[in-house]
Every structure is written in structure tokens, then in C-alpha cells.
# Entry
Amino acid sequence: MRFRGLVYRAHNPQWSWTPLSGEGARRHGGRFNRRGIPALHTSLAPLTAIREAEPLGRPMQPLTLCAYEVDAEPVFDATDERECRLQGVEEVDIACPFWEAEMLEGALPASQSLADRLIAAGYAGMQVRSFAAGAGAGDLNLVMWKWGNDRPARVVLIDDEGRLGGRRAR
# Structure
């Protein structure tokens, strides 16, 4: 599918000087990217982005909330049962509740394996529901593995006033 719209990211202020780098995800890994693979983990709503920044519901720490304009394809829609069946994606690949513990033990979690398969198939990103504490069925994320200033994977930080140093792409 083609994704066009606004997304949001609440991230650690230590990365506010480079809000399009994906460097934190590359260094630490995420549910849908293994260590070494940069990714932008964004949400379709500001509140979902805030929940994602503290996914286990821990006490809130300082965050930088950014908005991005996205026009990207192909994006895998993990909320579409038909698309999941066609790609052989199962619920366990998406939910993967113990992904972080598995990663820390040196195993490859199913969710990261899924991301590897989708990246190899040429997907720029994936739309997927949020698994953060307090998230509901309508809380969605967009995870991008490929992005830049131009189509087919355009992601542009909304920072018209240059508050974050004017960085617009990685």
C-alpha cells in the first residue's frame, strides 16, 4: 500500500538534534528492527506516540514530540488480514510479546525476523497496531526502514521554524 499522511514520534530528547536519523533504533534494536538496522518508529496519533515512548507504562520521562509528513510505498499493512495471509504473517510475528527479552538473550525475535523478511521484499515500512501499555485497537504505528527527502519513501520533519536545527532528512 501507499501511506500518505502525518505521523508523530515522541523520542528521547538526546536524539532531538537528529529526529530523522533512526540512530537510537539502530543502536538498541526495536520490536520491528534488529540492532544495526536504522528505523523510525512513528505513530498515527500524538497520544499513541507518547505511549510508545514509555511502552511499559513506566513513569513519564522528558520527551520531544515531532510530527512528520510521510508519502511512502510500498508499506506493508499488518492490520490487513488479507495482506498478512498473502505474506504468511501470523499474529505471533506481529505481537511477539517477549521480543526484548529474546533480543537481550541473543535470539532473533519473530517480530524482527518479520521485519527482515519485509525489508528483503522491498518494503519501505510497515503499518502495525501499537502494543504499548494503554493502547487500544485503533492505535496504529508506522515503522519505516527506508526513508529520505524524496519518493518513494519520503519522510519530512515538520520544523518550519528550525527549532531542531533544521534537519529535514537523514
Observations:
- The radius of gyration is 15 Å.
